[in-house]
Amino acid sequence: MLSPFAYVRAESVDDAIRHLASEGAVAHAGGTDLLGCLRDHVFDVKKVVSISRLKSLTDIAKTKTGGMSIGALATVAEIAGNPLIRQLYTGLARAASEVASPQLRNQGTLGGNLCQKPRCWYYRGEFHCVRKGGDTCYAVDGENAYHCILGGSNCVIVHPSDTAPALASLDARLHLQGPKGKRTVPVDGFFLLPDLDPTRETVLSPGEIVTRIELPAPPPGLRSSYRKVRARRSWDFALAGVALALVLDGDRVTKARVFLSGAAPIPWHAREVEAVITGHKLTPDVIKKAAEVAVQRAQPLEQNAYKIPLFRAVIEEELQAMAQA
Predict the structure, then answer these.
(1) What 3-state DSSP class applies to 252?
(2) Residues 6+ apart with CB under 8 A from 197
(3) pLDDT at residue 235 above 80?
């Protein structure tokens, strides 16, 4: 049963920021994650501020510099189906198409997908874990088959978004707005490891929201993709996934951006993979080495060591597909 809360519909971004400045206020966009959190009493809410009718945050358009500007309220389904995104940023369109179910893709927004809360059942359940301000991560010695193998410390969640690693691989930037004004941050600097603050997932300040996502113009020779492995074909979150954005000159990789999903508390920047493939052709030996180094620092928990060979296989297969494209 939901606890009582006030509800307001913001008339503008400034109006939303004003309401969100009050204690216990949260933003409501598509609501696919927020409503579940409210039902499960994951956090206390005194006011729900709906931004769902802010048309200024829904557009998808090409920029003057040849990139793309996407309003934070554009739905995940719109991202997956947009012809320009499918043409210029294949990896993002593919990642969006892998999110949850058709119903949730039609309702959920891109901004909400980036800002959703962790899916750890201890965090979502009746446990005062470290992410809720407690002193224990119950997953470390508990049911941890779906938790992280990289980047874990005092909290071992995995980041739940499919679009985040794809956007990070494409060098996307987020436009934020809050009580202190506007700022822009890169997607790969938006998320926080538990070492920095286990009670926060992002750098968003109180009352601050994502308003827009900006993608740079794709360089010549860009190939991007997203591959996700999950327990069931639909609905589930990633057990293992990889977002690739490679720039090729002929058959040689001149630039690489590689991020893993289902691996860590944030979209995991696989710099070791980038170092192995940059400047080289995607030969079988290079691909095999890249897959190996991707998990060389992995620290699996008791029940999730299966993720190590799974990541190796996913990365190897996706790089092979890139080499044959």
Answers:
(1) strand
(2) none
(3) no
Query: What is the predicted pLDDT for the residue at 23?
Result: 94
Which helix (H) or strand (E) element contains residue 68? strand 68-71
Number of structural domains, the chain?
A: 2
| Type of residue found at 268 | W
260 is a domain residue: yes
Q: According to the model, what pLDDT value does residue 231 have?
A: 85
With respect to residue 142, please indicate whether it lies within any of the assigned structural domains.
no
DSSP H helical ranges for 59-194: 76-81, 83-88, 90-97, 102-107, 110-115, 121-124, 163-169
Residue pair 79/96 in contact by the 8 Å Cβ criterion: yes
Residue 61, strand partner residues: 69
**pTM of structure:** 0.97
Sign of the Cα torsion 31, 37, 38, 44 reads: negative
Spatial CA neighbour of 112 closest among 173, 51, 153, 158: 51
The SS3 of residue 182 is: strand
- Mark 265-277 as b/e (b = at least 16 C-beta within 10 Å): bbbbbbebbbebb
Give mean pLDDT, residues 255-278: 98
- Domain of residue 194 covers 55-115+158-215
Banded pLDDT at 234 (limits 50, 70, 90): low
